[in-house]
């Protein structure tokens, strides 16, 4: 639920936000009744607000009657300083990485307890990938997510470690095992997954620091490949070169 927005005193803005917040990675298509229920709004109120959001381009109503997030909302989200500036700075390095590896390349930031995918370049290999630019995936089951989780505040780590959902038979759901992996991420400077988010897909990722000399981790970049058995060192090296370039460019803007 998005909150107790049906109580007296809730503003129109708060109700509209609750309606938009009804959508998440597990609920990309919602009927009006589902939106109203998840937003804790009366159905007539949800219907009126949904109509206004559709006219404003924030929602799209499909012929089936279901609602989805509109392009206008995504366009506005890209204007956020972190996403827009980081995406623009990282773009040439991601393209170089894509050309060098021919793999699917990801740029992600932490959005509370999820990995928000700011950019994605599709690889040539036939590897199942569930991410899209703008999507959110679990921190504990993705390469970029593990990097971001390893460098997250302790309070946030505890929140994620308390709810380790299983995505595939290989997802790490044991707290002690994941904690050991996070310690190795901080020690070795990279994270891996092996079919933990999607069967047939492995990933390796590294942190992006705010400067070339290190400091705060502001993002993670990663690649998705069919296997890591032979090419892990080469992929890690390519990722680290790209990450250092992004960090250097971020430092120059300060």
Automatic annotation (TrEMBL):
Signal peptide residue numbers: none
Residue ranges of domain IclR-ED in the record: 72-252
Gene3D superfamilies for the chain: 3.30.450.40, Winged helix-like DNA-binding domain superfamily/Winged helix DNA-binding domain
GO biological process, one term: negative regulation of DNA-templated transcription
A matching Pfam family: HTH_IclR
GO MF annotation: an example: DNA-binding transcription factor activity
UniProt entry tagged with the keyword Transcription: yes
Residue ranges constituting the HTH iclR-type domain according to the UniProt record: 10-71
Keywords, sorted A to Z: DNA-binding, Plasmid, Transcription, Transcription regulation
InterPro entries: GAF-like_dom_sf (IPR029016), HTH_MetabolicPath_Reg (IPR050707), Tscrpt_reg_IclR_C (IPR014757), Tscrpt_reg_IclR_N (IPR005471), WH-like_DNA-bd_sf (IPR036388), WH_DNA-bd_sf (IPR036390)
Protein name per Swiss-Prot or TrEMBL: Regulatory protein
Organism expressing this protein natively: Terrabacter sp. (strain DBF63)
